[in-house]
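pasting for the record
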Amino acid sequence: MPNWCANRLYFYGEEADIAGIRNLLSGELTSHFLRAEQEGIQLFVAGCAGILRPVEDFTYAPFPALTQAGKGSNSPENIAFSRWLTSLQEEVELSKDNCHLLHRLWLNTGIGNKRWSSLSREQQGVIEKLYSDKYFDWGYTWRKGEVSEWWNRLCDNPSFFPGRPLDFLHVLPTRLDVEVNGFNGKLLEGIPSAYDWYLRRYGTKWPQGSEVNISFSCEKGIQVDFDTPWSPPDEALIAELSRQYHCSIEHWYAEQGCDFCGYACYPEGEQLQQLQDSLEWELAEEGDDVYSDIIGPEWLINNIAHFGG
């Protein structure tokens, strides 16, 4: 398990913008990218199994087996699949608009109508192998369930995917190919794992706040405390958050295990001030035990819920 970096964000701006921030913090935004990820995974394995085929010669270099079945007929289903393949190859980002487009392509492939029992044994075998290798990345669980249940659940394609509190993928979108590759990667050659991509893009390996707590709220301001693994969210991410919501942000963070802390402010999407330091410690005695208290820096002490670790 990681060390946890403690974070506090304070937002201040116009009432409507703060209301939008509150929805993000509370997980009340629909996560369109989760649907695009799951639909994309199903189309990926469907292509590998030859259920859907491109209408022209197409080789996907990171995983040639995706189109090894060759060209298919010029059907509406295969045309939609071909367009999805192009999006995958172009490393499309899962913005809201792109997710809507990808969903329409998924619908047009008709893959949702192909229940597990309708697939040939050969097709099932290809999907079973891929699922066995990647279920922990694709099913959001370390427990390996039945591949038929997994497939049929994708066919059911729920229209609503509940949001997650303080999900930074709403601020900076992830990529379709990265999500197909999965958190641990090692499927698509030359494509980063989600772990590596998240670290580079968001500054933390899990781009959502953990233990999110709105600790203060008013019409034109809101304060939230949350944890992230090992490190704080990237500066560019917080700047983009400030820009998108037309608000000013102050960010404090600390992680006592690695002994660092910091502060930055972002008025209207631009970082204007930054402090970085080590924590200040004081040894104190209590009975036969000796322990350490964190006593500084002074600018941090009353502006963070805890010190991580």
